[in-house]
Write a structure and sequence with these properties.
Helices cover 31% and strands 21% of the residues. Strand 4, helix 5 and strand 5 form a beta-alpha-beta unit. It is an alpha/beta fold. It contains twelve helices and 16 strands. The protein has two domains: 130 residues, 3-Layer(aba) Sandwich (Rossmann fold); 298 residues, Dihydrodipicolinate Reductase, domain 2. Helix 10 runs parallel beside helix 12.
Length: 469
């Protein structure tokens, strides 16, 4: 881990949508906690001046969390602005001057990937890349070949240790804490393996559509948008071996090992869907075959997980918005021969609330020997004091902590796994909004009960709940 803290933050795309919705609130939160006290230089081509950028930042805060009376004046005093074309040498000469001798700036590229090469080349040519870090937003390429090409571009100006590939999902507290939960609690390890786990299912559902982002989504689809990155990261946190140390590279080594143990996904283990009405969304190609839903099965051919199927499902316009994991346990050799007991399970809900639940078979009072499944649940809603993803990740990048960022070998392994099914031109089946995908998705589902569809928080009255936090 590079422990040198950055002495300036430069963010390209300062007038864009991401900056407005996420970055300015994150910067104010960092200032409020005392984690940010260096120049913040916004760069964009909007014909603006510094006062206009500050007005935009304040409006962003008013709409997304509120203006802090103490932190905002400090943030405003740290802001700088350069207006110019990314292709112009003059823009980057102005940046070099504004850095004012900073030796370890962090350059955050909150811009479309098509502009990465131009900006990186200019940073290198102007000398602004020397001693610096660079943070780039996903997607890290469109497939394996473009991911490798992007990496060649980055490596011309920055060493791998200075490249931070940001996936905001890894900044969410429950995802961040999943590894800690697994390895800091003794009770998990004895059964968290192929001897006791029968299957694992991971669902990432959204109860809304593309929300005006039709053009972007039609170039991406569910597999590229959330499965190859967000959901694979959650899967790696669930399946990785304990790292030898807690330094960033030791942890990232174990995540890469999980992906290396996964064969490429065959088209027969994939079903894609598209919600009815998607083709009428603005910006969507009228004949688009891009999926808004995907369900797939994969195997992790490792000592711990060989023979345990993993099922991944993601989609838009589904019945609920949440991320949830269910690990079903193998059935015991029960003495109740006349009773078909359902499998026990462990359930993790990552969002919107954090839940850890154990599903067990019991005989309720007054019901003789009739068994049913109840849940013992520990659940908590996010605290206002918790760091939001961009606050956590930008702070980590400026501190040189790469633990929650994707390394290049990880990126390439993830693309290796999904590339064959992306290129297979499998059919896309239409599904109604508010359902769990097309009927054809039923051919890919966990054994012994199928999918355990998430419900709203605390809706299931059969659960025995214990709420904490």
């Amino acid at each position: 881990m590079d422990t040198i803290h950055s002495d300036a933050l430069v963010f390209f795309g300062a007038t864009g949508d991401l900056a407005y919705k996420q970055i300015f609130p994150a910067l104010q939160a960092m200032v409020k906690r005392g984690h940010l006290n260096v120049p913040i230089i916004g760069v964009a081509k909007a014909g603006w001046n510094l006062d206009q950028l500050k007005a935009r930042a304040k409006d962003s805060l008013e709409k997304h969390g509120g203006v802090d009376p103490v932190a905002w004046p400090k943030l405003s005093g740290l802001l700088r602005y350069i207006d110019g074309d990314y292709a112009s040498d003059a823009t980057f000469q102005a940046l070099r001057k504004e850095l004012n001798g900073a030796k370890h700036p962090t350059h955050y590229l909150a811009i479309p990937p098509m502009l990465f090469e131009e900006v990186v080349e200019q940073l290198m040519k102007s000398g602004c890349a020397e001693g610096a870090r660079v943070v780039i937003e996903k997607p890290f390429g469109h497939d394996l070949a473009t991911a490798q090409e992007l990496n060649h571009i980055l490596l011309r100006a920055f060493p791998e240790s200075s490249i931070f590939r940001i996936d905001h999902y890894l900044g969410k507290a429950p995802v961040h804490n999943m590894v800690t939960f697994r390895f800091a609690n003794t009770f998990m390890e004895p059964f968290w393996n192929r001897n006791y786990i029968d299957s694992v299912q991971i669902t990432m559902a959204e109860n809304f559509g593309v929300q005006g982002r039709g053009k972007f989504y039609d170039e991406t689809g569910a597999i590229r948008d959330v499965i190859e990155n967000h959901m694979f990261q959650v899967m790696c946190n669930l399946a990785m071996e304990p790292p030898a140390r807690t330094d960033p590279e030791s942890i990232r080594d174990e995540k890469v090992k999980v992906l290396k143990a996964i064969p490429p996904i065959e088209p027969k283990n994939l079903v894609r869907g598209q919600f009815k009405g998607y083709l009428q969304e603005p910006g969507v190609n009228p004949g688009s075959k891009v999926e808004t839903f995907a369900v797939l099965q994969l195997e992790i051919d490792s000592w711990r997980w060989k023979g345990v199927p993993f099922y991944i499902r993601a989609g838009k316009n589904l019945p609920i918005t949440c991320m949830e994991v269910v690990a079903r346990l193998r059935k015991p050799p029960t003495p109740f021969r006349d009773t078909d007991l359902p499998p026990d399970y462990v359930r993790f809900r990552v969002s919107p609330e954090t839940t850890i639940a154990l599903g067990v078979s019991v005989v309720p009072p007054g019901e003789d020997e009739a068994t049913r499944t109840i849940e013992m649940v520990a659940s908590r809603h996010p605290s206002p004091k918790e760091m939001e993803p961009y606050e956590r990740l930008l702070g980590d990048a400026m501190a040189g902590d790469a633990t929650e960022f994707a390394r290049q070998d990880y990126v390439e392994e993830a693309w290796r796994i999904v590339d064959p099914m992306l290129k297979a031109d499998t059919p896309v089946y239409v599904y109604e909004s508010g359902t769990w995908g097309p009927a054809e998705a039923a051919k890919i589902q966990p054994p012994d009960g199928g999918w355990q569809n998430p419900t709203g928080a605390d809706e299931d009255t059969s659960r025995l709940a214990k709420h904490v936090g």
